[in-house]
Amino acid sequence: MVRSIHIVALGSERSGLGLLEEGAGQPQGGLLWSYLGRSVVPGVRDTLSRTDGSLLSSTAATLHPMNPAFIQYQARMFGDVRVLVHDCPSWDLLDRDWVATRGVLEQADILVIKYSVNDKLTFQQVRDAYSPRIRPLLRHWAVPVIVAAVGARLNEEGPPCTCPLCASDWSSSVPHNEGLQLARDLGATYLELPSLNDFFVGRYFGGVLEYFMVQCLKQKAKERPDKRRTHKASELRPPQLEQPARLPAVRVEESRFSQDMQWLLERGVQFADVAFYAGDSGKELGWAHAAVLCSVSPYFRQLLLGGQGRDRPVSRCACRDGPQSLLSTWDGGAEDPPRPDGHLAGRLSRLVVKDPLLCRCLWDMLRFLYRGASEWKQLQDAAGEKLKSSVAVAELLERVRSFITREKGSRETLSTHPSQQSSRYLGNLFNSPLCSDVIFMVQGSVLPAHRAVLVARCDVMAAMFSGKYAEARSRVVPIHGVSSDTFLSFLEYLYTDTCCPASVLQAMSVLVCAEMYQVKRLQHLCEVCVCAYLQSMPSRELASTGISVVRLLRRAKCHNADQLYIWLLHFIANNYLIFSHKPDFLELSGESRRPLQSKW
Fold first, then answer.
1. At what angle do helices 257-267 and 362-370 cross, to 10 degrees?
2. Distance (Å, rounded) from C-alpha 49 to C-alpha 74?
3. Rounded to whole angstroms, how far apart are CA atoms 489 and 487?
4. How far is CA 385 from CA 315, 369, 374, 378, in A?
5. Top mean-pLDDT range of 42-46, 381-385, 401-405, 539-543
6. What SS3 class is residue 284?
7. pTM value?
8. CB-neighbour burial class of residue 415 (10 A; exposed 0-12, middle 13-18, buried 19+)
9. Strand order in the sheet with 349-353
């Protein structure tokens, strides 16, 4: 009895065309053509031939007699196994005769869906139009599916971002996470093939395809052909990770960025370096922090820093002539107010508020700026309660708008979430010497920072800079036990409220740093990053990776990452056959190994 495998391939690996080579009846250089024409495993593959049995030549591929959309060719593998391939390089051809196309798909033992990562338009068509058609068929037939993303993403400005959580792929390329989501929707194994060389075609794609072939042959040997597609209990499952819903959820707290900055305004007087005074009476109106004001408002950056600022915008309030008509600096007549013991004295800037509307609503305006300059409705309501006049409120909003407008004639249309808006502005100060009052020395690297931001965002930093410690009296603070890249990522989170490590190991390093400084939300974000990286790995890559999941498990337990520890236990259990053969599996304690073995 002749054993056979039927493979159906849909889509093209090429950007834009998705068609055959001009003048040729075959997909020259295509994924399956390249795989079947290579001797990846010596002695396994014998011949690549026409459907009539003759040896395959450069023009051997022929059109399917019942559906010309498919090109068919065959090979002989594993000695006596006949592999028949039906390849449709153009999705548009499927629309011409869907009934005949469905007939070809019904005969498939393995389905391969291909696309070029640099052809986003075709990918969107596949995801939105063709995937919904194919998905119900796959549920009924239970055939293994491979989604292959082929090609290296093009980027004129620099190398791509490889982070699975990041959405910074280019407009013309298909991001990693979108391809992975398509594979999950189809219940498929997802592969990325940057090029069609011996490694990616033969070892990577070929290894997964041969795995499916062997499993199909075993399945056919056990079941009668007429029952193979009706027994859902014995259907072939792809070698992939469990779906996210079957693993414990890793929860991350809501952002408190805006609340932290409001706390700084209300209670961070110890680190304030800007004082406001009424222009008519000289009465003290309040305190603020130059770092925050300069990051949010170009107007304050010009007023406080002058030539040090990166740009020099001016106020464009319709009812005033220039910036000096609203606020002005005042350097004489008073000594710096006393600071708490041990606090490093800094330069104090005094600003005189000349406008009566700003004098009455200064605190509301500062709270608006500290919370990201996006909560216009709250500012309007607060001003309305004090001014009792819609005209006065409109004039006040125009003055505030003039503080944050960047270009002449523009209007601020800030509609993002307040915490996102605040973190976006404060990110301008990240790793910048502008208004910096502390320098971290980490492995020889000089990292400037701002005490006001640090104490508002990190309780350990607040204790370190507020108490009677050496750090509170020194401008240069050495950091030990952390790499400069890791500490820079930690500071980036404090300023931007985001975390995007480039690898599993970097995410674990940032997690350890977050645990050291007791920043729980960053720790949980790193847990999510680690889970996302591991979950995006196909089983074949997971088996060969140099990342030790068992050691990640031990580090998670050591650094109080409880959610990650529980998730990794379930992850190892779901992939027990992969991890149980690794040497480091024996390093697990009996307490950790028992729940894994009990699941199996």
1. 140
2. 6
3. 5
4. 26, 19, 19, 11
5. 381-385
6. strand
7. 0.57
8. exposed
9. 284-288, 274-278, 349-353, 327-329
